[in-house]
Methylated-DNA--protein-cysteine methyltransferase (Rheinheimera pacifica), 155 residues
Amino acid sequence: MFSQYIDSPLGPVHILATASGITAISFVPTRQAAEQPSALTTLAAQQLSAYFAGTLSHFSLPLTASGTVFQQQVWRQLCAIPFGQTCSYADIARGISNVKAVRAVGAANGRNPIAIVVPCHRVIGANGTLTGYAGGLDKKAWLLKHEQRQKALFG
C-alpha cells in the first residue's frame, strides 16, 4: 500500500493506492503516518493540487476502491456528474436504472472512499439542500462553490 498527503485549502488530504490504482482519498485532521509515495499517489497529488488551484476539472486516475457491485455502480454514476453541477440521489438512482434504490444510493454515496475524484459532494437533497458528506458539510459547500466559480470562469 502506498500513501501520500497533500495540503489543501480544506486541510490535509490523504491518498492511498496499490500498484494498480487509487483506493482512497480522504480529508484528515492531521498527517497521521509516514508517507510511502508511488507514481500513482504522486499523480493523484498533482491532479488534486491542480483541482484546488482551479486549473483541473476532470481527473484521469485509475481507481480501484473496494466495494460491492452496487456501490461500484453508484460510484461510476457519480463520476458522470459534470464538473460544477449537482444532482439528487434520485437522479443517481435513475442513472443506474434502479429508481427505487434512492436510500441505497445514499448509503453507497456515503461509503465512497475516494473523495473529490469520485464526486459524491455533487449530490444534494432533492429540495436543493446540502445533505451529508463524510468530510463535513462545510467542506462540501466549499467544494461546490469552488467548482461553480471555476466553471463560471472557464465555462
